[in-house]
């Protein structure tokens, strides 16, 4: 299947700065996760598929036979349906009553996180004469949304008895799964299974039980249950520097630009806003046309590196909104030379995890921060 032909990938603009999304790596990661856990996968594509492009990523996962997709907001789910995505889509965020009709109209699965919300969903479904497909959200320690596991029984009973809701799933979310040694995950799993056991005791059919995010997939087999919900690891990035690399994955995103300007900065002169970096000898400095206005973190000012002609060079001075400067020392660079910000060049590589550590943020923030000002280009994925 031509995986992205109807996916409306953004036209490749003239802009020399671009994100390249490797759909073959995405498919590899999905296969790798599947083989590791041995249960169906809900591919998480919220937040523009972690910066990789919501629709092309979702269509490719669908072409690869992903069992289910997950997003955060109903708007993201509607965008998927409008783009022709037909796979089951769960909206994981808390819902607002007035939106329920939209879920049902677009065939989106609803997270029901309280008895009140169950009643709202039932009312909307009855008014439309169309059943709603729901997943119950149990709070086992995250304290975000969901009915507390210790008081979930009446909630579960009402959902099982509901005439207008199809109980497809029951789930919870892990708070500490990035940390392989945290006892929290075991406690959350126990609480979740105890809530699920109530359904069994009622003699009702067990819906799909799902609990594991990427950290759960990597570290905690007892959380895999009937389906897993990986986000970041699907994109080939570890949730935390301390994560155990138990699943072989390849980075899906790379980010590159080109040298737009070259000059020599004389000893004693400073570079960029605030004059925070000073050349202590004459040195060659190039300018790269990407900045925090694209989501490249300003925290990488005088901290990050880039690759030019196979060599690693430091960013000097503050990252501006649209540009930053790089000290290439005695190296050479020409206008239009490729500058790799994320990815490999020669025998060097810069990972999202590296950038996150340097910027003092989590890898998620680097990925989702890269915004739509940067064109995305999709490689692979189409069978020849
Ligand atoms: C975002 C999210 C995930 C995926 O998390 P990763 O750490 O990226 O794997 C899974 N489940 C829920 C409920 C989420 O909100």
Oligomer: single chain
The total tally of domains equals: 2
Task: Please compute the radius of gyration using only Cα atoms.
Answer: 24 Å
**Which band does the percent of strand residues land in?**
15-25%
What is the overall pLDDT average?
95
Structural category: alpha/beta
Q: How many β strands by DSSP?
A: 21
- Please write the CATH class name of the largest domain: Alpha Beta
Q: How many angstroms separate the termini? A: 10 Å
Describe the structure.
The protein is α/β, with parallel strands linked by helices and 384 residues long. The chain has eleven helices and 21 strands. Strands 1, 11, 12, 15, 16, 17, 18, 19, 20 and 21 form a ten-stranded mixed sheet that branches. Strands 2, 3, 4, 5, 6, 7, 8, 9 and 10 form a nine-stranded parallel sheet that branches. The chain has a two-stranded antiparallel sheet with strand order 13-14. Helix 7 (153-161) packs across helix 8 and helix 10 (352-359) crosses helix 11 (363-369). The relative contact order is 0.15. The site of pyridoxal-5'-phosphate has 11 residues, from loops.
Keywords:
384 residues; alpha/beta; TIM Barrel; Lyase, Ornithine Decarboxylase, Chain A, domain 1; 2 domains; 9-stranded parallel beta sheet; binds pyridoxal-5'-phosphate
Describe the structure in brief:
This is Alanine racemase. It comes from Lysobacter stagni. It contains eleven helices and 21 strands.
Layout of strands and helices, then pairs:
Elements: E1 18-22, H1 23-37, E2 42-44, H2 46-51, H3 54-63, E3 68-71, H4 74-82, E4 89-91, H5 100-105, E5 109-112, H6 115-128, E6 132-139, E7 147-148, H7 153-161, E8 165-171, H8 184-202, E9 208-212, H9 214-219, E10 227-228, E11 253-258, E12 261-265, E13 270-271, E14 277-278, E15 283-288, E16 305-308, E17 311-316, E18 324-329, E19 338-345, E20 348-350, H10 352-359, H11 363-369, E21 376-379
Helix pairs in contact: 7-8, 10-11
The structure holds pyridoxal-5'-phosphate.
């Amino acid at each position: 299947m031509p995986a992205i032909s109807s996916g409306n990938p953004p036209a490749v603009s003239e802009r020399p700065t671009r994100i390249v999304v490797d759909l073959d790596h995405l498919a590899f990661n999905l296969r790798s996760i599947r083989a590791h856990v041995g249960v169906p996968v809900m591919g998480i594509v919220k937040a523009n598929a972690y910066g990789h492009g919501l629709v092309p990523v979702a269509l490719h996962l669908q072409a690869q036979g992903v069992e289910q997709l997950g997003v955060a907001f109903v708007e993201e789910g509607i965008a998927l349906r409008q783009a022709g995505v037909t796979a089951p889509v769960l909206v994981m965020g808390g819902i607002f009553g007035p939106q329920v009709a939209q879920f049902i109209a677009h065939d989106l699965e609803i997270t029901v996180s309280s008895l009140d919300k169950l009643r709202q969903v039932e009312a909307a479904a009855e008014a439309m004469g169309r059943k709603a497909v729901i997943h119950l959200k149990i709070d086992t320690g995250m304290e975000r949304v969901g009915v507390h596991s210790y008081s979930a029984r009446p909630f579960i009973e009402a959902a099982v008895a509901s005439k207008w809701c199809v109980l497809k799933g029951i789930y919870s979310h892990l708070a500490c799964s990035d940390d392989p040694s945290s006892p929290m995950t075991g406690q959350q799993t126990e609480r979740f299974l105890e809530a699920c056991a109530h359904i069994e005791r009622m003699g009702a059919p067990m819906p799909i039980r799902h609990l594991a995010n990427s950290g759960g997939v990597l570290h905690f087999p007892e959380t895999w249950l009937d389906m897993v919900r990986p986000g970041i690891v699907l994109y080939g990035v570890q949730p935390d520097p301390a994560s155990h690399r138990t699943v072989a994955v390849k980075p899906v995103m790379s980010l590159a630009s080109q040298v737009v300007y070259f000059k020599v900065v004389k000893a004693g002169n400073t570079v960029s806003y605030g004059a925070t970096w000073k050349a202590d000898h004459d040195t060659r400095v190039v300018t790269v046309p990407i900045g925090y206005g694209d989501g490249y973190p300003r925290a990488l000012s005088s901290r990050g590196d880039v690759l030019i002609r196979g060599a690693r060079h430091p960013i000097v001075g503050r990252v501006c909104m649209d540009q930053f400067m790089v000290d290439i020392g005695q190296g050479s660079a020409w206008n239009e030379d490729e500058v790799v910000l994320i990815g490999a060049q020669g025998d060097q590589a810069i990972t999202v995890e590296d950038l996150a550590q340097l910027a003092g943020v989590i890898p998620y923030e680097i990925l989702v921060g890269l915004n739509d000002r940067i064109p995305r280009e999709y490689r692979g994925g189409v069978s020849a």
